[in-house]
Amino acid sequence: MCGIIGYIGSQQAAPILLDALQILEYRGYDSAGIAVLHGSTIVNVKAKGKVNALRARVDSAVQGLGGSLGTMGIGHTRWATHGKPDDINSHPHLSRSGKIAVVHNGIIENHTALRLLLEGHGFNFVSETDTEVVAHLIEYLYRGDPVKAVREAAAMLDGSYALGVLFSEYPDMLVAVKKDSPLIIGLGDNENLIASDIPAVLGHTRNIVRLGEEELAVVKRDAVTVYDRYDTEMIPDVMHIDWDVTSAAKDGYEHFMLKEIAEQPKTVKNTVAAYVKDGHIDFSLASFDEEYFRSIDKIYVIACGSAYHVGVVATQLMEQYLRIPSRAVLASEFSYMDPILDEKTLVIAVSQSGETSDTLNAMRYAKAHGTRTLSVVNILGSTISAESDDVIYTHAGPEIAVATTKAYSAQLVVMYMLIEYIGILRGCPFMPEDEFLNALHELPQKLQELIDDSAYLRDLAGIYQNRKDIFFIGKNLDYALSLEASLKLKEISYIHSEAYAAGELKHGTLSLIQNGTLVIAICTRKELLPQMLSNIKEVSSRGADVITVAEENTDGVEECSTHCIRLPESADFLQPSLAIVPMQYFSYYVALLRGCSIDQPRNLAKSVTVK
Ligand code: F6R
Q1: How far from 536 is each of 134, 179, 384, 561, 581, CA to CA, in Å?
Q2: Using a 6 Å CB cutoff, which residues line ligand 1?
Q3: Residue 428 catalytic?
Q4: Which domains are assigned to the chain?
């Protein structure tokens, strides 16, 4: 939640900060602000709403100050947690003297106690935010050494933070520190940047340092020094990012979501290619030997949202094929259920961002209870990937739209490969490895066919765009898929939608079905078709319109549906990867026709780093 940026270099800071905030807007978009050092004064401009509203204000501030500002500054785009989105609560926040400016991503849990302490020392607060505490606290502790003051302040904070701090008395440096919220440093040529995420700095550099837990960086125009949590200077790992700038740009598409849906064949291909060597699946997992995989007696997949839905698909397949008790658990619930964890338990954390606080905390809980953890993560070097015992990266590239599409597909593919890999070791794979890999290699082409043939889904969306309630039903893997399809639709179109196991409707939900309700019935499990057809009749006889989603040669579905979406034939376990594509398009077009903010749905943010 929230995107932060900082720039120090030889160019005007304001336009660079604004452009970066626009890129980071997917992290939060209810208000934004920048603070730029102009001479010895911090010019702080903030605005409720999206970055464009801020841009207009910055333009007039720059005009008022003679046409230019300074070359060092920090910026923030907010997803409100403490205090409503407005000009005052937006960041940066200034200290009492106006000489220190702070941007923050995270939550300061002890902000009330710190506020009382600071009020006792004569600090008055103007905002309702937890972050303003940090600005005043640094000033309270400041005795002429900015690094020491930031470090001491950070030590007093409970909760999560990525902080960028600017001192007007130190025009040659920014100070950054982080705990449980992401922060990267972009190493440029005579300029350096701090940011919440890599795409924000790609226009300047592809050399990145990812700050570790409680590490602090002093960022100057021509040098960056990183200190570990004990304040010992360290040599940071520099990562070279091989995405180009266009992979984080819309590239002619109307929305990032549309672009990312269309990128799924490439994403799947790259992810499969990364883990096949000499015709065999090869994850090169340093922390997990073959003996361990033979010994595991239970599996938990912990994740949130769509990543959890990947877990639901995967655990059904794990139990069915590997015959290992397997359960997908919402990460935010994991510790409360007091899970049975031991050395024979495999805990898999699935996360696109690798920063989701609930998933991270669940994973830490598992580790603390003696269980080895494996993460499936998209973002290189992210906290979950760094803290898990081992990591399998999905190769989806940057995903910008808040609603995940291509990362979801990459996660599914990794899960299929992991199941096949464990299955081979335990003598119960999906199918012989060569056949399995052939089926996976055919997947990108089938995805491409669905993408090339997606225009009709816009017409279908046009017919149903004004429905009040839309239900998704399915059985087994199709139920897991229904969960994801329903989430996709509701998060971007704001239409109320729910997913049900098809057999469960008659236990209560059927009372909601009436004339005009739309039910989308996913029917890829051929062996379950007779039962699905009866469930479809239950809803259509009560007035529902029904869209069925089924493989090309499935008989009997046209007759009982208002519309039918057809999928290419494939191995059963791959159907979740195919069936989701038309569902993504349908959601996208419904949202488009309803005029919704597709890439940045209301109230949501891409990376959920709060509990
Ligand atoms: C929905 C969506 C979210 C995320 C969830 C977990 O489209 O994107 O439900 O799947 O917030 O995020 P990650 O995968 O970053 O842990």
Answers
A1: 57, 50, 41, 8, 22
A2: 304-307, 351-353, 356, 359, 403-404, 487, 491, 607-608
A3: no
A4: 3-245 (3.60.20.10), 256-450 (3.40.50.10490), 456-593 (3.40.50.10490)
Atom from ligand 1 closest to the CA of residue 384: 16
Q: In what order do the strands lie in the sheet with 545-551?
A: 496-501, 469-474, 518-522, 545-551, 563-567
Determine the pLDDT at residue 245. Answer: 66
Q: At 229, which amino acid appears?
A: R
CB 8 within 8 A of CB 58: no
Query: How many angstroms separate the alpha carbon of residue 485 from the centre of ligand 1?
Result: 13
Give the up-direction half-sphere exposure of residue 121: CA atoms within 13 A in the CB hemisphere. Answer: 12
What's the mean pLDDT in 188-197? 96
- Which pTM value belongs to this model? 0.84
Q: Whose CA is nearest to atom 16 of ligand 1?
A: 351
- Name every residue whose Cβ is closer than 8 Å to that of residue 176 and which is 6 or more positions away in sequence: 6, 162, 163, 164, 165, 183, 185, 194, 211, 216, 217, 219
Two tokens at 358? 């609930």
- Which distant-in-sequence residues (6+ apart) come within 8 Å of 92 by Cβ? 33, 34, 35, 44, 46, 74, 75, 76, 101, 102, 103, 166
pLDDT tens, residue by residue, 363-383: 999 999 999 999 999 988 888
Amino acid at 110: N
Q: Any alpha helices (H) in 427-555, and if so which ranges?
A: 433-452, 456-464, 477-493, 529-540
pLDDT in tens, 383-425: 899 999 999 999 998 898 999 999 999 999 999 999 999 999 9
pLDDT in tens, 85-113: 888 889 999 999 999 999 999 889 899 99
Rounded to whole angstroms, how far apart are CA atoms 548 and 474? 10
Strand order in the sheet with 93-94: 93-94, 100-108, 159-167, 174-179, 216-219, 224-227, 233-234
pLDDT tens per residue, range 34-71 = 999 999 999 999 999 889 999 999 999 999 998 899 99
Residue 297 CA to residue 486 CA, distance in Å, equals 32
Angle at alpha carbon of residue 405, lines to 519 and 432, rounded to 5°: 95
Residue 144 burial class via C-beta count within 10 angstroms: exposed 0-12, middle 13-18, buried 19 and up: exposed
What's the pLDDT score for residue 610?
A: 66
Catalytic: 304?
no
Averaged pLDDT score across all residues of the chain: 94
The Cα 436–Cα 423 span in angstroms is 12
